[in-house]
Amino acid sequence: MTMNTRRRPLLVLLALLATLPPAAGTSLAITDEEIFRAFPFNLQNPGARAMGIGGAFISLADDSTAAQANPAGLTQLRDAELFAELRVTGRDEVASNLSVDFASNTFTGNITAGAVSDPSNQVHPSFLSYVLPLERVAFGFSRLESLRVRSRTQNLFTVVGERAIFDVGLDGRPVIVGTETVDEARTADADVNANIAQYNAGVAVNLHRTLSVGVTAVLGVLSIDGRVDNTFSDRSDPLLSGLTLLDYSTRIDDDDTDFAANVGILWRPIDAFRVGAVYRQGHRFVVTEEISEIGFGSQTVKKQFGGTFENVIHTPDSYGLGVSWRPSEPLTFFLDAVHVEYSDLLDGYRPGLNRITYPNDETAFTVDDGTEVHFGVEYLLVNGGTPLALRVGAWRDVDNRIRAVEEGLDVVFPAGEDVTHYT
After folding, report:
1. H or E element in which residue 304 lies
2. Is pLDDT above 80 for 244?
3. Is the dihedral of CA 121, 122, 123, 125 positive or negative?
């Protein structure tokens, strides 16, 4: 049986997005398809005060947002507190163009591509919490939206060169049996609407007047609806040249839940110095994707991946350490270091749906764990009985883009860049 790759879609958005400015937050990918390439996760501590000092809130955590930043800080509240955050999120439409000369064991030639991504602006309640403090114990209940994205991406590209023709070997694995010339124009049109909401219930206890601990149980709920339609025009075939035909489509419309936990500790040895630490466990969601029956290449794709298959979205575990120092009454410095296990993103990662890597579903990809650094300064101006707080901050997001290991593929699937933010 011949697995002819002539009418398989070339899903090169992974390469295209490598040329785009990185979005705030972590971008995840569970396959190398368009709908998983740019998830802007909300990983920052909520609240205007935390944002004003660059997110360096682990050692402070003295309001109801401590339910997320460091649950041990809940014991610092003296009265019941209700907090709500309404966030307006907007990302500009982004266009990009790419031309790459590429050589591998499956394709040698030139890829010219362009992409347009058009995310929707949204207004949504990103964080809601209620804290009930007692004598030595405090309880906190909250809801956090760690992901809300609605976006459409369209990719236009041409492929000119020589590519491999595959057959199925005795072991059921693809075997290269020849090559063929390709000259095609292709389009991949994708939509995604995804949301992750976290429902938190936490408790904090004062073990000593200088030491408190807290733990939060987190129920994560993922909902995702997405599609990728891949079309082609074979310019090397006189009968098909100029016609745009459907190659194959994928659909995903699924929900999943998972439990995780956050653990925090807060130590206040003296009034002017504080130390906090927190561990946040990531969620592991499993959702089902379906390959459509319609399309010239759909049956070929289904032979490789099955009619339906599971995708894993594993948000990273993280460990944070924060310190704050108040050298004088109005002035405080804050510093956090948060180590993020971005390698968790590779849990369940499925290469091979991208035409560049097809049918090699063992193509090596990697991503480095990284440490984010958050720094902030707060200065209080006291005017009568009403203090005015001046805050500045900065933090650095480290590169978390999944990249190819193999030489040649690393040009198409390159690493990203670190990004510094200022508040």
Report:
1. helix 298-305
2. yes
3. negative
